[in-house]
Amino acid sequence: MKRPPETLTSPSNPLIKSLKGLERKKERQSSGLFLAEGARLVEQGLANNWQPDTLVVAAAVADRPHIAALADKAEAAGARVVLVPERLMSKITHKDNAQSVIATFRQRQVTLDQLEVRYSPRKSLFVALYEVRDPGNLGTILRTADCAGADGVILVGTCCDPYSFEAVRASMGSVFDMPFAGASYEDFEAWRRKSGIASVAASVNGTVRHDLVNLQQDTVILMGNEQAGLPPAVEADCDQLVLIPMRGGADSLNLAQATAIMVYEAWRQRDFQ
Q1: What value does the mean pLDDT take over residues 65-72?
Q2: Which of 29, 115, 180, 202 has the fewest CB atoms found within 10 Å of its own CB?
């Protein structure tokens, strides 16, 4: 006979306190865990074979068939399954309207050499983000790259944490689908050149419109920091600097918007294949 899940009711329980602590980067780094909120995201993580550590379910919905099935799947994958009252779900997520399912997963540390470079029949497409600082932008870019079938996202230099609450939420589950790796600029540039991948950067110093440059070859789209853009030395290493046309009073696009324009232009040039 299957044993029922354990029930926790106290906010001072060590597990609850450790889950709440995952809001902080230091705790995520020391534990190697991150939080995913919502049944759909948890299902996506399990479907992509990410290792669950703990599944927390609001006790009021635990008997619903799809929630019970998700709990069984998580437990089979090695997760500790616990039930808690709704008020503790909000404590864990630091939100008033917390979802009814939360899970912690083991982080993955991917290196540049683990990213798959496809030379044929479809050319590779990567997105590199230079010192991106906004986790909402990062999560949205992971989602965009996933939607457009990019091969990976590279976090260059000191970037925000892709495993933060904000980044995971903004990715809408693409954190589980889209390979991403972190690297210093020097290592990124060495990998790119060794792999024979052209670099195209969006820049205010661009000399050609973004839709007039060849993005059908093996390409990495390099996007700069939200405030400072790309340093001159980095721009000098790029094969092409492009300019996204704008009119009106605004002097710039949001980083996630600009990245979406670049990525979808590359996909359009490849006939959305």
Answers
A1: 96
A2: 29
